[in-house]
């Protein structure tokens, strides 16, 4: 491109334009447009400065920026014609302020001097991910991979592109780099080092692919959680496949204003991989413990020369055993996507997914306390590999397909529209056994056969924008979303005989009969459809005045569900099947939730905040003695904290204290036997501290400490305590004030990765991590505890291209979790325990080109 038509800082004064034009011409003399000069000094982020640039035409905004920052901006007239800037107000490093001025314009900037940059189209040859200037990230994609172990902005907390330091509640991001260094094989493992999250409560229950919908085995601030993918609730296993994921976010605390039906502990936000602005080509071959072999492919590139049409394909194929004999994990899946930048103001992204998992690694076979928590002469340790089921009846698999689109359009500089739609279909087939009880070294089993299918449709539409009233800036959102789930299940259980297995000498070849049409079986089961529909309308306003940010939001939700279930009995003498209804459909429910918070960004990086937020969960299927359905469980949280972004460093420190009350917890109705009353309360309170840091370009670290005290604050329920052998003793005592079981009070973790200086071992990096999980009670009256445990993780990676130019792009990786192979229990009830994962090794060779 010729230099004519370029201006600097977009001053309209003729002599200023000409003088700056000559300066830019000199500056660009040794630089081909679109390529950084080899001799150009990098832009170094200075200390923060005050910027007050209102939304206006982009040309004028860049002129004002040049005056306020002292930077030189070179840009062709044609790029900014008819474009508007959202503006920027507050204290920022100049590079950060410039990135915000360019947000939504389809433009970025390129370094050309110590305080000089060139404005250019995003589709030009830029680097993948955030732009890094002088060691500081200029702007991060709020749904992208982050940089190192640090993410600075998010969409999960507010559904707007907002810095974490401007949101008055706790949000923690698991970046792509952290996942690459730790090599987790599902989302549960990826969240191991996240504050406020107990991610492996179910131990080896799920040895394979990962969570489905409800994020099973994950507790946030003591409550179960829900996963949302690209902002919509998911009901299939793609939410647990790390090969398809760009980043993971834990939003701790109530999130109902933005997401509807969620528990007060929070939600897990997951971003799927989408087309990148620059070419990406990667293939990986992996191997690991228990015979794991895996291959993944991740490729993205332009379809059109201009780059306005791009594609990405992520795929995985894996076969593996698990630490439990005869329980395997097998999966093939593909996630293709296309992004079309229709014009500078409009874009459309289409995603599809198909996943076939004939063996998902689920282990329904719990082990009794005798042999796990108790280990002595009468209770020999039960090996983690013990399989007590039947090899001939051992199937657990799924098929999932999904289609999603994400559409965005900017009407003008004040109003934009975005919409996300997803359709997904899942099928599940289960034919195996689960644990029912134990007697000494014998465990009772119940064979079952479950065939289910579900269809989920979700849509989130919102209008949002920016408007300024004097010095006050508003980022507002008004939206509506809905989710419809249709679920059909046929479940049958074999009651022909009492099946038992000896834990130390199982006979795994015993035949099992669960054929509903067989006269040899007497089967009880249930069948019927389940339909669920939720719709919500929400609003939010983020108000900024100088360093103060205020967040206000509210939402009304309507929930309607219909369940027509029938019991099924097979009379093996007459070969007839009879059905009887198992209950009527619950009444529709609705709830209003809201939140308010404020956070103040000081000039030296410290941001104190306070917030109040609410949540709700419907309670269907239960009624009081008058037949009236119970109100939804409602949660409310107060949270106060500090966030500290070290100036000019990729270091984010956070600390928060919280108190959550969940009301309408069901307790016994003492006046009407057999019924419940909804006047109970559970209270969770505690604090979290964390650090996410790219300390140097070679040293990265995450660390956190979590304290969670969750108790039954109000209840009339009572129970007898039991000893460790299951014997009851004493009088029944009240559960009021007792700790809610199976949630550790204390958790601490630290993980660091260090790339060795090139003078010592060029291309070599090592990492190390430690996880401490405190003890937790087994029942509602604090009878006894599951013990605490400490685990160690190590790893190494080697970039062959650093030492051998012919091997550029080739990288080897090794990760070992639970290095000492510690035998530990994630949690127990008063009869059974969940054993944790033993030492697991995973290595891979990855090639990028």
UniProtKB/TrEMBL annotation:
| Signal peptide per UniProt | 1-40
Q: Where is the Secretin/TonB short N-terminal domain?
A: 71-122
Any single GO BP term = siderophore transport
> How does the protein's chain sit in the membrane according to the entry?
Multi-pass membrane protein
Give the UniProt entry's GO cellular component terms. Answer: cell outer membrane
Tell me which domain of life the UniProt entry assigns to the organism this sequence originates from: Bacteria
Q: Which GO terms describe its molecular function?
A: siderophore uptake transmembrane transporter activity; signaling receptor activity
- Name recorded for this polypeptide: TonB-dependent siderophore receptor
């Amino acid at each position: 491109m010729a230099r004519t038509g370029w201006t600097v800082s977009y001053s309209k004064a003729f002599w200023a334009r000409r003088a700056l034009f000559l300066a830019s011409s000199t500056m660009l003399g040794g630089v081909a447009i679109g390529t950084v000069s080899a001799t150009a000094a990098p832009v170094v982020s200075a200390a923060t400065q005050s910027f007050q640039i209102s939304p206006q035409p982009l040309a004028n905004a860049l002129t004002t920026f040049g005056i306020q920052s002292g930077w030189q901006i070179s840009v062709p007239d044609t790029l900014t014609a008819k474009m508007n800037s959202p503006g920027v107000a507050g204290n920022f490093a100049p590079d950060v302020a410039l990135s915000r001025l360019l947000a939504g314009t389809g433009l970025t900037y390129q370094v050309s001097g110590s305080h000089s940059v060139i404005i250019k189209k995003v589709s030009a040859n830029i680097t993948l991910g955030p732009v890094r200037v002088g060691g500081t990230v200029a702007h991060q994609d709020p749904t992208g991979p982050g940089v190192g172990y640090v993410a600075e902005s998010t969409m999960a907390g507010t559904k707007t592109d907002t810095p974490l330091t401007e949101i008055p509640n706790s949000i923690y991001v698991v970046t792509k780099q952290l996942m690459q260094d730790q090599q987790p094989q599902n989302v549960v493992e990826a969240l191991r080092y996240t504050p406020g999250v107990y991610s492996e409560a179910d131990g080896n229950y799920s040895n394979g692919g990962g969570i489905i919908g409800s994020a099973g085995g994950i507790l946030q601030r003591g409550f179960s959680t829900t996963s949302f993918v690209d902002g919509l609730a998911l009901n299939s296993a793609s939410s647990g496949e790390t090969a398809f994921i760009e980043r993971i976010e834990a939003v701790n605390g109530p999130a109902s204003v933005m997401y509807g039906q969620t528990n007060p502990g929070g939600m897990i936000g997951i971003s799927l991989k989408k087309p990148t602005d620059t070419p990406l080509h990667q293939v990986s071959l992996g191997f690991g413990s228990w015979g794991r072999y895996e291959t993944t492919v991740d490729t993205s590139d332009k379809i059109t020369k201009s780059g306005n049409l791009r594609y990405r394909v992520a795929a995985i194929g894996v076969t593996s055993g698990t630490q439990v004999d005869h329980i395997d994990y097998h999966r093939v899946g593909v996630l293709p996507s296309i992004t079309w930048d229709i014009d500078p103001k409009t874009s459309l992204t289409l995603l599809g997914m198909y996943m076939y998992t004939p063996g998902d690694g689920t282990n329904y076979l719990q082990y009794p306390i005798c042999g796990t928590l108790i280990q002595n002469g009468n209770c020999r340790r039960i090996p983690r590999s013990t399989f007590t089921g039947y090899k001939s009846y051992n199937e657990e698999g799924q098929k999932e397909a999904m289609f999603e689109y994400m559409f965005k359009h900017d009407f003008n500089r004040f109003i934009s529209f975005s919409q996300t739609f997803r359709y997904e279909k899942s099928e599940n087939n289960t034919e195996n056994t689960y644990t029912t009880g134990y007697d000494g070294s014998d465990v009772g089993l119940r064979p079952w056969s479950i065939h289910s299918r579900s269809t989920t449709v979700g849509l989130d539409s919102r209008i949002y924008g920016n408007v300024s009233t004097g010095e006050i800036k508003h980022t507002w959102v008004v939206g509506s979303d809905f989710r419809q789930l249709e679920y059909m299940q046929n479940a049958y259980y074999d009651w022909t005989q009492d099946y038992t297995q000896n834990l130390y000498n199982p006979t795994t070849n015993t035949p099992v009969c669960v054929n509903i049409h067989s006269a040899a079986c007497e089967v009880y089961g249930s069948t019927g459809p389940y339909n669920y529909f939720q719709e919500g309308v929400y609003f939010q306003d983020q108000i900024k005045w100088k360093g103060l940010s205020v967040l206000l939001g509210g939402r009304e939700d309507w929930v309607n569900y219909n369940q027509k279930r029938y019991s099924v009995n097979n009379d093996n003498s007459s070969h007839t099947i009879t059905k009887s209804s198992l209950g009527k459909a619950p009444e529709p429910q609705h709830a209003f939730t809201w939140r308010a918070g404020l956070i103040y960004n000081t000039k030296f990086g410290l941001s104190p905040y306070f917030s109040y937020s609410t949540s709700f969960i419907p309670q269907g299927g239960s009624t009081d003695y008058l037949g009236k359905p119970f109100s939804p469980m409602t949660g409310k949280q107060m949270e106060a904290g500090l966030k500290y972004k070290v100036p000019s460093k990729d270091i984010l420190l956070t600390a928060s204290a919280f108190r959550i009350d969940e009301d309408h917890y069901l307790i016994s109705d003492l006046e009407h036997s057999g019924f419940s009353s909804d006047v109970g309360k559970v209270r969770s309170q505690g604090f979290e501290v964390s650090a996410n840091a790219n300390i140097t370009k070679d040293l990265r670290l995450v660390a956190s400490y979590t304290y969670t005290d969750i108790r039954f604050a109000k209840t009339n329920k009572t129970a007898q305590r039991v000893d460790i052998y299951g014997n009851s003793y004493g009088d029944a005592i009240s559960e009021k004030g007792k700790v809610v079981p199976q949630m550790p009070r204390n958790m601490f973790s630290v993980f660091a990765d260090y790339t060795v200086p090139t003078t010592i071992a060029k291309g070599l990096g090592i990492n190390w991590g430690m996880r401490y999980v405190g003890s937790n009670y087994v029942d509602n009256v604090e009878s006894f505890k599951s013990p605490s445990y400490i685990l160690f993780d190590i790893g190494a990676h080697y970039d062959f291209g650093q030492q051998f130019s012919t091997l550029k792009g080739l990288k080897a990786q090794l990760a070992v979790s639970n290095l000492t192979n510690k035998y530990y229990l994630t949690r127990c009830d008063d009869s059974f325990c969940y054993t944790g994962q033993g030492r697991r090794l995973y290595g891979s060779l990855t090639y990028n080109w």
